[in-house]
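Suppose a colleague, Dr. K., hands you the sequence of a protein chain of 156 amino acids and asks what its three-dimensional shape might be. Before reaching for any lab equipment, you can write down a predicted structure in token form. Begin with the sequence itself:
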Amino acid sequence: MVTSDATVLLAEDDPNDALFVRTALERTCPAIRISAVCNGLEALKYLKGQQPYANRLVFPLPNLVLLSLSMPMMTGFQVLRWTREQPHLKGLPVVVLANSNYDDDSRLAYQLGADSYLVKPCGLDELTQAMVQVARRWLVRSRWLEADKGDQRKAA
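The predicted structure, expressed as tokens, is then:
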């Protein structure tokens, strides 16, 4: 069971990928709040609580960040580096969503402090399964998702 105040920040510039990830998350954890931004600069503004994301009741600090690497204005690497430099965000789980499995990209993401590196699967069913694993791992760890077996949802 997910508490209604659990929030995931999805930073993804590709509208199709964003829709697929959002759909997969909604199938996995229907009660979760998903806030989405379409570039690295907006991700930074959201995490800083700057306009237009200053109202933390509407745009709460996330419990999990899903971060695309190849975004305009600021790359996912830059957002990740900045996030890990902020004392109040050091414990925030950040899962990198990548389009490919380049060793250099995954190595750099982990060096910068990524908690996980996920190559986005092509199909919605595969992406849903990946989001089940991501949500269960990181939201259970941060206590926003109960770890009971009765809550495991099957991908539709």
